[in-house]
Each structure stands twice: as structure tokens, then as C-alpha cells.
Amino acid sequence: MNTIPPGFSQTEPTLNRDAWMDTITVLEALTARNCNPDVEPVRRDTVPPASKPRRKVPGDDVTVRRLSHAVVTVVERVTDRSILLNWCDPTSCHYSDQLWTKRSARRSGHCALTGESIARGDAVYAPYTRVSNPPANEQAMILASSVKD
Fold first, then answer.
1. Structural domain boundaries of the chain?
2. Separation CA 22–CA 44 (nearest Å)
3. Could you tell me where the beta strands, DSSP code E, fall in the chain?
4. CB proximity list for 80: less than 8 A, separation 6 or greater
């Protein structure tokens, strides 16, 4: 069974020659395909993290954004103050239909969907958390203005 995703080869040279980053690259490609088969993997050694594009998935009305190692897919709006999304990060966590709720940003940061800057007080969506069992992506935020109605 060939576990190397299409577009990758075992003999293909990489720019950084770092075995750990090569492993992460393959895991990201496999995870991206498992999360959404229409998303093409992005090679970490050819695309700098800051320039990873926001992409529309063909045939779907969902938005996908790769931020750091994560593939973020907005699934649906549940209410006017909550959304469901898929968060796939081969280095830390995978959440399907994770509930995010609207609130004011408690700190500055960057939007996990668009990469835009977030200022304290901006309207954002953040993972719904329970104090006893917070998700691994509890610090992530998405600008409310970047989520379609």
C-alpha cells in the first residue's frame, strides 16, 4: 500500500532536508484529504506559511484556510451567534463539527480563517469551551465579519 500522497515522492528532494518537517508535510497532506478530499495539499517547503492562500472548495459553499498546520472549514451557521466548523491539525488536534460561539476578542491575534489581524474587542468566533476540558485550539479566533451569513 502506497501511503505517500499524490504529488509527493520518497526520492523527491526537499529544500530544508529536515526529516521532521517532511513528516509533518506528509501528515498535513493526508489530513487535508481526510478533512476535505477536494482540498489539494500545500507543500510546506514551497509555500511560506504567511502566504498560504484562502481557498474556495469547488462545488461547495464553504471556506477553507490553512493557518500554521491547521485546515479550517466552516461547515454551517447554527444560530446568529454560533457556527460549526472542522478543525484539522495533524500536529495537535482534529475536531469535526466543533461549536464556535460569537464574542468580543479578549486579546489581539490573527483570524484562523483569513489571517487578518484581530484587535481586542473585535467581534470574533471562538471555540466553545468548558473550564474542565478545554479544546487544544481554545486560543484560536475567527473574525465574525469573515463568516458568511
1. 52-146
2. 8
3. 54-56, 63-67, 70-79, 82-89, 93-104, 109-110, 117-118, 123-127, 142-143
4. 102
Per the model's pLDDT, the better-predicted residue between 33 and 118 turns out to be 118
Q: Are strands 123-127 and 117-118 parallel, antiparallel or unpaired?
A: unpaired
Burial of 84 (0-12, 13-18, 19+ CB in 10 A): middle
The pairing of strands 93-104 and 109-110 is: unpaired
**What are the distances in angstroms from CA 148 to CA 18, 98, 99?**
39, 17, 16
Cell of 77: 451557521
- Cβ proximity of 25 and 32 under 8 Å: no
- On whether the CB atoms of residues 7 and 41 are closer than 8 A, the answer is yes
Q: Over 90: is that where the pLDDT of 63 sits?
A: no
- Rounded Cα gap, residues 5 and 83, in angstroms: 31
Taking the whole predicted model, whether its pTM rises above 0.70 is answered as no
| 41 touches 71 (CB < 8 A) | no
* 24-44 confidence digits (pLDDT tens): 777 776 665 555 555 544 443
